[in-house]
Backbone:
């Protein structure tokens, strides 16, 4: 059995305070909690106050190509931007990319040892727009390797294979 972790998002309860962005970026800072920078957060709040639209989005998979088509959602009379609900780190926008390395960012559910009782963005969301659930499903636990491969591939694209390999070799010696 594998554990599936779910963050439920209630856009009607989100007030755009962005506390979730602050704590996520602090948790993932190096060293941990040394800085806050929403650009490094794995959750971003897309908002349009004039239309009363606040959409917290958790960073999902990296994709090399942007989509050819887009969707426009109208919910309760509110029209949401074409990419509002998309979780991808993709070339068409600057969301979910580390501002220094350009590496794609992905929500890791605040994995920690020992595990946190709930992901931090959920704990810091005082308006209950984010709530957490766990359930068990048939299947194997996911391998973490895939994420590392995407990160390496993205670095190689940006800096070239030689530079990346030289840096890895240098770091291994330190
Ligand atoms: S902390 Fe909650 S209410 Fe504040 S922006 Fe994030 S999701 Fe919205
Ligand atoms: S679960 Fe953790 S890693 Fe994911 S968006 Fe929330 S704070 Fe960031």
Residues:
């Amino acid at each position: 059995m594998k554990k599936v972790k779910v963050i439920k998002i209630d856009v009607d309860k989100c007030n755009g305070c962005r506390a979730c962005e602050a704590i996520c970026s602090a948790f993932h800072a190096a060293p941990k909690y040394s800085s806050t920078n929403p650009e490094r957060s794995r959750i971003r709040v897309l908002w349009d106050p004039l239309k009363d639209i606040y959409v917290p989005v958790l960073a999902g998979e990296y994709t090399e190509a942007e989509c050819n088509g887009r969707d426009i959602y109208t919910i309760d009379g509110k029209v949401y931007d074409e990419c509002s609900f998309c979780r991808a780190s993709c070339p068409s926008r600057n969301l979910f990319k580390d501002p220094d390395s350009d590496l794609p960012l992905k929500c890791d559910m605040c994995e920690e040892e020992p595990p946190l009782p709930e992901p931090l963005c959920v704990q810091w969301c005082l308006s209950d727009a984010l709530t957490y659930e766990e359930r068990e499903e048939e299947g194997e636990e996911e391998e973490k390797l895939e994420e590392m491969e995407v990160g390496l591939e993205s670095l190689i694209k940006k800096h070239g294979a030689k530079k990346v390999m030289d840096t890895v070799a240098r770091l291994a010696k330190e």
